[in-house]
From TrEMBL:
SUPFAM superfamilies: E set domains, Voltage-gated potassium channels. Residues 384-417 are annotated as: Disordered. Residues 51-190 form the Potassium channel inwardly rectifying transmembrane domain. It catalyses: K(+)(in) = K(+)(out). The record marks 176 as: Role in the control of polyamine-mediated channel gating and in the blocking by intracellular magnesium. This is G protein-activated inward rectifier potassium channel 2. It comes from Bubo bubo (Eurasian eagle-owl). It holds the Pfam family IRK.
C-alpha cells in the first residue's frame, strides 16, 4: 500500500506542469551594464569529448622523445599509417630495390668491360644484351619479379653475377613477403566493419521493472553477424581523492550485465543495453536537476569477431550529459511480418517521453524505505508514550506519598492536643 502511494506521488510529480520563473525586471541602466557575452559563452561552452561519436579517440600524443620504439615494430607502424603514406612507401621500397640492384648489375658489366665489347660475338658478357644502365635496371626488375622475358640472361662466365643473382632473389622474396603481408593486413583490417555497427544518438534514463536504469541501443546493419559480441561501458569523469590528488579523466566501470551475462550479445536485431542505477553505480546520487551540471562522458565499446574473416572488431561511441535524456524510452523497431521479423532502422534513434521520477536513485531508495518501514516511527512514538506514562505514574505516586505524609502529620497533631 505504501509503495503504491509512493508511486502515485512520483507520477503526480512527473505530470506537473513546468513552473515558469519570471526574472525580476531590472532598470534600463542595469540591463545595459550586464555583460552581453555571458549567454554566448555558456552556449559555446561544450564538454571536450574523450571519444568522438564515430569512435575515434580524441587524444594526441605529444613530446614523444623515444621515437625509435616505432622503428622496432616497423610492421605495426606501417599498418597504422594512412593509405596514402602506405602506398607511397610500397612503391618507394620496390623502386629503390630495383634501382639499387640495377646499379650493381651495371657496375659489374662496366668493371668487366662488357660495355666496350657491345656487338662483339667473340666476347662473353656477364649478362647478355646488357648495353647500359637502363637495360641493367630492366634486368633487375625481371630478376626480382621473376618475369624472365628471355632476352637478357646471365651467363656462366660471371661468378660475381651468379652471387648477385642469389642475393637479389633472396632479398626480393623478403621484400615481397614483408610488403605484401603489410598490404594484406592493411586491407583486411576490420575497422570498416565497425561502420555498420551503430549506436543510438542519445542515451536515456527511465524506470524499468521498478528500478531507475540508464539505457542505450546498439544494432548491426549487416546480415553477417558479429560472433561472440560483448558490450562494455566506461564513465570518464575527473575526480579528486580524499588526499587532494586530482585524477583527470578517471575511468570507472559501468555494469551492463557482467555478472548476469547480459553483456554477451546475440546481435541479430537491435538491442537495448541497460545499466541498473544502484548503490554500486556512479549515477547513484545524480538526479534530473543535477545531471546537466555534471561534466562526464559515457564511453561504450562493442567487441566481437567478424563472421567472414574471424578477426576481432571493435566499435566505439560516447555520450555526454547533453546526450542523456531523462524520462525517455526508445521507440520499438522490431515488428512481426508474414513469416519473418522486420527491423525499421528509421526509428532506431527515436525516443518518446515517459513518466519518470526526477529524483536520484538514492533518494528513491530512501523514500521507499521510509514508506515500507513505518515500524521505526511507531517504535519511537511508543517509547516516547511509555516514557510519558512512567513520568505521570511517578508524579501520581509522589502526590499520593505527600498526601499520606500530610495525613500522618495531622494525626500526630491531634494526638498531642
Amino acid at each position: 500500500m505504501a509503495a503504491n502511494v509512493l508511486e502515485e506521488d512520483s507520477m503526480e510529480q512527473d505530470i506537473e506542469s513546468p513552473v515558469t520563473i519570471h526574472q525580476p525586471k531590472l532598470p534600463k541602466q542595469a540591463r545595459e551594464d550586464l555583460p552581453k557575452n555571458i549567454n554566448k559563452e555558456c552556449a559555446k561552452r561544450k564538454i571536450q569529448r574523450y571519444v568522438r561519436k564515430d569512435g575515434k579517440c580524441n587524444v594526441h600524443h605529444g613530446n614523444v622523445r623515444e621515437t625509435y620504439r616505432y622503428l622496432t615494430d616497423i610492421f605495426t607502424t606501417l599498418v597504422d599509417l594512412k593509405w596514402r603514406f602506405n602506398l607511397l612507401i610500397f612503391v618507394m621500397v620496390y623502386t629503390v630495390t630495383w634501382l639499387f640492384f640495377g646499379m650493381i648489375w651495371w657496375l659489374i658489366a662496366y668493371m668487366r668491360g662488357d660495355m666496350d665489347h657491345i656487338g662483339d660475338s667473340t666476347w662473353t658478357p656477364c649478362v647478355s644484351n646488357l648495353n647500359g644502365f637502363v637495360s641493367a635496371f630492366l634486368f633487375s626488375i625481371e630478376t626480382e619479379t621473376t618475369i624472365g622475358y628471355g632476352y637478357r640472361v646471365i651467363t656462366d662466365k660471371c661468378p660475381e653475377g651468379i652471387i648477385l643473382l642469389l642475393v637479389q632473389s633472396v632479398l626480393g622474396s623478403i621484400v615481397n613477403a614483408f610488403m605484401v603481408g603489410c598490404m594484406f593486413v592493411k586491407i583486411s583490417q576490420p575497422k570498416k566493419r565497425a561502420e555498420t555497427l551503430v549506436f543510438s544518438t542519445n542515451a536515456v534514463i527511465s524506470m524499468r521493472d521498478g528500478k531507475l536504469c540508464l539505457m542505450f541501443r546498439v544494432g548491426d546493419l549487416r546480415n553477417s553477424h558479429i560472433v561472440e559480441a560483448s558490450i562494455r561501458a566506461k564513465l570518464i569523469k575527473s575526480k579528486q581523492t580524499k588526499e587532494g590528488e586530482f585524477i583527470p579523466l578517471n575511468q570507472t566501470d559501468i555494469n551492463v550485465g557482467y555478472y548476469t551475462g547480459d553483456d554477451r550479445l546475440f546481435l541479430v536485431s537491435p538491442l537495448i543495453i541497460s545499466h541498473e542505477i544502484n548503490q554500486q553505480s556512479p549515477f547513484w546520487e545524480i538526479s534530473k536537476a543535477q545531471l546537466p551540471k555534471e561534466e562526464l562522458e559515457i564511453v561504450v565499446i562493442l567487441e566481437g569477431m567478424v563472421e567472414a574473416t574471424g578477426m576481432t572488431c571493435q566499435a566505439r561511441s560516447s555520450y555526454i550529459t547533453s546526450e542523456i535524456l531523462w524520462g525517455y524510452r526508445f521507440t520499438p523497431v522490431l515488428t512481426l511480418e508474414d513469416g519473418f521479423y522486420e527491423v525499421d532502422y528509421n526509428s532506431f534513434h527515436e525516443t518518446y517521453e515517459t513518466n519518470t521520477p526526477v529524483y536520484s536513485a538514492k533518494e528513491l531508495a530512501e523514500m521507499a524505505s521510509r514508506a515500507e518501514l513505518p515500524l521505526t516511527w511507531s517504535v519511537s512514538s511508543k517509547l516516547d508514550q511509555h516514557a510519558e506514562l512512567e513520568t505521570e505514574e511517578e508524579e501520581k505516586n509522589q502526590e499520593d506519598q505527600n498526601e499520606r505524609n500530610g495525613d500522618v502529620a495531622n494525626l500526630e497533631n491531634e494526638s498531642k492536643v
